[in-house]
Amino acid sequence: MPERVPLSRQIAADLGDLIRTGKLAPGALMPSERELIERYGTSKSTASKAIALLRAEGLVTTEFGRGTFVRSRPPLRRVSAARRHAEHRSSGKPIFDTEAIEQGQVPSRQMLLIGRAQVPPDAAEWLQATTDEEVVIRKRLQLLNGNPAVISTSYYPLWLAANTRLESPEPLPEGPDELIEALGHRFSRGVEVFRVRMPTAEEAELLHLSSGTPIVQMWDVDYDNEGRTLQVAEDLYAGDRHEFIYEWSEGDIKT
After folding, report:
1. How far apart are CA 182 and CA 174, in angstroms?
2. DSSP-derived pairing of the beta strands 107-118 and 134-144
3. pTM to 2 decimals?
4. Backbone angles phi, psi at 58, to 5 degrees
5. Torsion sign, CA atoms 82, 88, 94, 96
6. Beta strand 215-223 with 134-144: parallel, antiparallel or unpaired?
7. Distance of CA 51 to the CA centre of its chain
8. For residues 131 and 123, is the Cβ–Cβ distance under 8 A?
9. N- to C-terminal Cα distance for the chain?
10. What pLDDT is attached to residue 1?
11. Nearest to 209 by CA among 239, 235, 236
């Protein structure tokens, strides 16, 4: 006998279908808990769980004192492609800003940490460094339309970053990639590694994540033509606010 689906999940599935088919449009006010209680003949607890499931899926947002609304902004689409560095060169902005603006969203950031520190073990492996080495670290909270979206931490070897603007507390309006190239280095190849996990308490607080919402952890590692690591970036994406695409063309394939 099939296991019975909890009523909270049935309600969430019904409302999710209405959102995905456009019958509940972006920005629309969702049925209140009282309306769900009357419609489904259920309890306040079950109605609350249904709304919580929709929040965890990234389909709705709740505003205190106003109600729950269909998410009005689409997820930011991050495109992995061989031309990523070319795009930042042409725009003169960080790639996060470039992609957000192209998709009609407003990027901004808050700096959380800039300075020298010992490299963490997981970053040391990618940086080709030992864990007792000092590196330059730039950590920031990236926002879309004023809402936290990504925690980005970049690590730079001292041979590249020492006494440069990468150590400056001032923002880098052109982005670190362009600055690295201005320092005379060229990106030759890169690696991106993705992992989905649950956030720590600090990460969930910074990203304003609902309970049960995962993050996507991405390591983005860039090398020069001598195989030296130029930078290592650890990006923690709110799982309900992003989608990831990989693009390639025949010209990207070397024979």
Report:
1. 10
2. antiparallel
3. 0.75
4. 80, 15
5. negative
6. unpaired
7. 23
8. no
9. 56
10. 46
11. 239
Determine the 3-state secondary structure of 161 from DSSP.
helix
8 A C-beta contact, residue 235 and residue 218 = yes
- Cβ(65)–Cβ(155) under 8 Å? no
CA 168 to chain centre: 24
CB atoms < 10 A from the CB of 185, how many?
17
* Nearest in space to 6 (alpha carbons), one of 38, 52, 60: 52
Per-residue model confidence as pLDDT tens for the chain (255 residues)? 456 888 999 999 999 999 989 899 988 999 999 999 999 999 999 999 999 999 878 788 888 888 999 987 666 767 665 555 566 566 677 888 888 888 888 889 999 999 999 999 999 999 999 999 999 999 999 998 888 999 999 999 999 999 999 999 988 888 888 899 999 999 999 999 999 999 999 999 999 987 778 999 999 999 999 999 999 999 999 887 888 888 776 666 555
Token output for 92: 């003169």
Indicate the Cα dihedral angle 57, 62, 67, 68, nearest 10°.
-20
Q: Pairing between strand 147-157 and 134-144? A: antiparallel
Residues in the chain: 255
Among 196, 199, 201, 213, smallest CA distance to 59 is for 213
Q: Do the beta carbons of residue 154 and residue 176 sit within 8 Å? A: yes
| Cα 157 versus chain centre, distance | 24
Measured distance CA(51)–CA(60) in Å, rounded? 8
- Alpha-carbon span 32 to 40, nearest angstrom: 12
Structure tokens at 58: 């990234």
What DSSP character marks residue 250? G
Give the amino acid at 215: I
